[in-house]
Design brief:
Length: 248
């Protein structure tokens, strides 16, 4: 007996069957790829942390992370402690602090819950680096960074990235000509007050030689992205001030 494919019931049953088959295939694919996705995220975070403290493969003006086949070993070598900081500046070690989701922690704080602040203590060439992950809002979507500091909250290196800023404009926050300007900039005033670093259009310091003005040059055509970077630095890094005061 031939099936009447013109009936509505046949169309509905066929559509339901296809949804179930395709859905099952997608679920299986997602499940099978999950370990690889998780591993890639782990390596990416470790690369970002190491990049901020100067462990990378940069040459000339290029921006190159340490390769994925070296990152796990390098992370173990250079990162001496992973800490979780509380609002009073206290800390406790956590060997998986790099897995803390800053976005989720920010949401918890907005809901009145306690926010965990990850901090990574690295050592390279006899220097100690304190690397803090921060997150904010650009023009179109999220922006984030890993900022390496010394004990006086002077920037020793930085890595910035974004989810969807405008190519050639705000998207350039992850280029070296922008990121390198932050090195040497001070977050604190002479009397120890937290001031942050502003991405300023009127900085008038194109070579970024002045390191105590709490400013870096803005990117052309990316005012809102720059404002987001400034706000992110001020809001998130200020939370670490009690910890750094406790280091004195």
């Amino acid at each position: 007996m031939a099936v009447n494919t013109d009936k509505n019931s046949y169309t509905i049953l066929f559509a339901v069957a296809m949804v179930l088959i395709v859905g099952s295939l997608l679920a299986f694919t997602a499940s099978s790829l999950k370990p690889a996705i998780t591993e890639n995220k782990r390596m990416e975070k470790q690369q970002n942390i190491l990049y901020a403290m100067g462990v990378n493969e940069n040459e000339g003006t290029s921006r190159e992370f340490i390769s994925t086949d070296k990152v796990a070993e390098a992370f173990s070598k250079y990162i001496k402690k992973q800490l979780v900081i509380d609002t009073n500046g206290g800390s406790e070690e956590d060997t998986e602090a790099y897995l803390i989701d800053v976005k989720k922690e920010q949401a918890k704080a907005k809901n009145g819950e306690t926010r965990r602040l990850p901090l990574f203590v690295g050592e390279k060439d006899g220097k100690t680096f304190y690397i803090a992950p921060i997150r904010g809002k650009g023009l179109w979507d999220a922006v984030w960074a890993y900022i390496a500091l010394d004990k006086d909250m002077v920037v020793q290196g930085a890595f910035f990235d974004h989810a969807g800023e405008t190519p050639g404009l705000g998207a350039n926050i992850n280029q070296r000509f922008f990121m390198d300007d932050f090195t040497g900039e001070r977050l604190l005033s002479d009397n120890g007050t937290f001031k942050g670093i502003a991405v300023a259009k009127g900085n008038n310091d194109p070579k970024n030689l002045i390191k105590d003005d709490h400013e870096v040059d803005a990117l052309a055509g990316a005012t809102i992205t720059g404002d987001g970077i400034s706000a992110m630095i001020k809001a998130d890094l200020k939370l670490y001030l009690p910890y750094f005061k406790n280091l004195k």
